Amino acid sequence: MSFEFNSGPSGGGKRYVKWKVQGGGSYAPENFVTGYGDSAEVYEGLKNGGVVMDIDTLKTGWNTFSGREWRWNENLVDWTPPPKDEFDDWKKGFSVELSDDDGLIVWEQEGASAFAAIERLAPDLKAGRKGQAVPKIKLRTVERLPTKKMAIPILEIVEWVDRSKTPASSPSGDDGGF
Prior knowledge:
By secondary structure, the protein is mainly beta. The chain has a domain at 16-62 and 93-165. Helix content is 10%, strand content 40%. Strands 1, 2, 3, 4, 5, 6, 7, 8 and 9 form a nine-stranded mixed beta sheet that branches.
């Protein structure tokens, strides 16, 4: 009897970015990175000219590292309590789509440092939003809180961009992450 297997087309998966307070084998501490493990590399998009943030895709919720499972809030205002289950290590997190010269990239992360970046950017997002414009953001600086062993990426809005001039958002449904 023969065995056949088709692994499907290569590539085509979503790109993800994460804020890393600790360094890794191929990157220094306090960097945005893409990729996994030894293949992780510094993501320069947020340092250079910036990236467009589709704030209409922003969602918040709870993530557990043990189960790599997300429980999303119904909206950005009302928080559900953290789940109580066998994982019991739920942390606040978020997901938002970004656009750079290469297309869409998802920033999906739990943890205090990354979440604080979104919290600190939120008032500027609210104050500057006009119509269907979306913000182009970049990393301005890093705030280090040694007593909490945190390094918060401080983001700033470079400009507001007409949504019609940005790549279309990808369909939701992949709670991926890495």
